[in-house]
From TrEMBL:
Gene name for this UniProt entry: hrcA
Residues making up the signal peptide according to the UniProt record: none
InterPro entries for the chain: GAF-like_dom_sf, HrcA, HrcA_C, WH-like_DNA-bd_sf, WH_DNA-bd_sf, WHTH_transcript_rep_HrcA_IDD
Protein name per the record: Heat-inducible transcription repressor HrcA
Entry annotated with the keyword Transcription regulation: yes
Organism: Congregibacter variabilis
Amino acid sequence: MAHELTDRAGTLLRTLVALHIRDGSPVGSQTLRQEAGLSVSPATVRNAMSDLEERGFLHSPHTSAGRVPTAQGYRFFVDSLLQVKDDLNSSAFDVLRQELNPDRTTSDLVQAASSMLSSITSQAGVVTVPRPTQQPLRQVEFLPLSGDRVLVILVINQREVQNRIIHTRRVFSDEELRAAAAQINERFAGQALADVQQQVDRELLAAKNNIDDYLSATLDLAQRALAEEEKPSDYLIVGESRLFEGASPEQLQRLRELFATLESKQDLLHLLESCSEADGVKIFIGEEAGSQILGDYSLITAPYGDGARTLGVLGVIGPTRMAYDRVIPVVDVTSRMLSAALAS
């Protein structure tokens, strides 16, 4: 809790964490005293460091007389002592605005977001991929082929076009297909594909019970046009190699375990999807997510959407000693800009 630390102890902890983030080395009492700018004796600083260690904020590596922050120390630092930068520098903002162009497709925007997160923060950038059923239907068109085959043209989210061939229960004329498409577009355009599918299923059952042949035929077309095997969730990650930069020999084994987790995807996907309902930035430090997924690494996430619904989560994976004051606003701004591009 914030009230458990005096101003002096808070200053020392904040200074020690900042030094460790900058240098990656254990911090000794003499260095800490000089950098903190406090008019106190060396003994006072040593006693304060011992107290912080007893509270679980610091620990002493056996190879050094200095101390480094624990995950609990980083958590207290992030929650109570961190001064986050208000915004991005102009060059980073301009690059994001250029790359997250509303005219690009959703898949291109997701790829660009993960790349930009990695490039700007020098960490690994990760973005979950929206499921097609989460995105809105804009328009459907039917073109007759031979026999009972119909070409379906789906326009999704204003910019993405999908073509698929379906087999119908009977042969439809050009006029019937145009009328069916017009009715579907009038009733369902702008709704998420998953919501349209559910509504069509309900209405199709009701139409069959009422023996409404025309409505049944139209809804059957819609059902077949929208039917698609649900793809498992996925994410894009860029910049994994950056995690090797500055890694100590002790961290290499943790890195191998982390990469194994990233390769299997399911554990990290579960963690990312749990962040989809978060209001803004969410931070996991070390193993506080409830498992050993992250180990000596942190995950900073924020949800993104299209203005009507949440479509996914983006974030940054990096060592616990990452520059939180710089990474947090990058994640926040990127999520906002991606959402704005998808909502345009």
